[in-house]
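Troubleshooting: if your tokenizer reports a length mismatch, compare your output against this known-good record of 473 residues.
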Amino acid sequence: MTTIASLSAADLGPLYAAKTLSPVEVARDVLARIERFEPAVNAFALRDEAVTLAMAEASQARWLKGEAIGPLDGVPVTIKDNLGVAGWPMRRGSNVTSDAPFTEDSPVAARLREAGTVFLGKTAMPEYGWKGVGDSPLTGITRNPWDTGMGPGGSSAGAAVSAALNLGCIHIGTDGAGSIRIPAAFTGVVGLKPSYGRVPAWPISTMGFLAHLGPLARSVTDTALAMKVISQPDQRDMTALVDRPPDYVDGLKGGLRGLRVAWSPRLGLDVAVDPEVAALTAAAAQVFAELGAVVEEADPGFADPIETLMTLWASGAALALGGVGAAGRARMDPGLVALAERGEAIAAATYVDALLNRRSALALHMAQFHQRYDLLLTPALPLPAFTVGRDTPAHGAYGEDWTAWTPFTYPFNITEQPAASVPCGLTKAGLPAGLQIVGAFGKDALVLRAAAAFEQVRPFARIDAPREPARAG
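Known-good structure output:
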């Protein structure tokens, strides 16, 4: 039997048009499921039922009058808590930020509001999005619905968890070093980091050119529907692309036949990859060959750019905490404070060298690589989700630094090119693995097209309710 909980954004519009379902019915159903599941997963930083129902009622009135704005009118969505929404505070996972309502919508919130979507609330994240897991001093620990004893990854932790449980159909996250793709891989959803500037940002992140905005969803079609709306230009972001984006939904057609695809099982880096993740992602790469792509095992051939990342990342943290004194810092995540202090010690010339020279060199290297290959495939992460509340796995294979287990994501923030994580199976313990699909700068539609072709022949596993640890697998 079809339930509201199983419906996608693509499903809802036709049902609204046929008057067999209403935006208010959907909103009430989602709100009830959030109320039921939130104690187990802690995905939200803010919920506002009155606003949600008012937006749903306005959408319902439009559909009844035959005046729907478009295909996303009445579709429930969430927005990460480092993005501005008029009337709601923007806390960024921190106790030291203001709880005053933000005065205007950020570009993504504005485009979603203009499209008639229904806002459910703001999703949880680690403090200032500084790390790849999902706990913060403000909201506590966010948990993975596939096994609530495991973490969902981060920093778009609540967005990914909400997507996995279909608590809303589209979820907006941010990705500065993998923060969309990491939780997408750990929770079994689609997460797209678009080309830098494709989705406008305002206020601009302190992480600068590393920080991309993009959607998380249960399906590639819903991801494309979101991109069609949120990638429209906005004059408040001087770094954003100003051309009108392509029709990402129409662009899902075409398949993979004839594409040149590189499969890189370790990205050429010295990193331990979990055997089950290695097998699942290798099998996923083989599917591309079965669908007609020319797949070759090939590494891009660059050294780990961790020094470049951390120069930019730590400097951004220093800027973010620039006005926070000792008393405030004592209330913050100690790891974030240490990162900011590291950034404060970085010389300006070192920062500019990373921003201009080293970043550009890696981007050029990948542009030349994509002259030979249309797409690059890698594992999104080298491991499945690990124990919740930790920055790194307890077994110690990756040390104490969270970036050691995310080496496949952050290089493509430095290069600014599009990259998506798509689910490619479950481990024996019932935990998702993600395949990363990387395209040349500006080839977001091609990345989505490849993801859609893969999804069609390898439908993604779904979860309907959080699972306690004893039940997982």
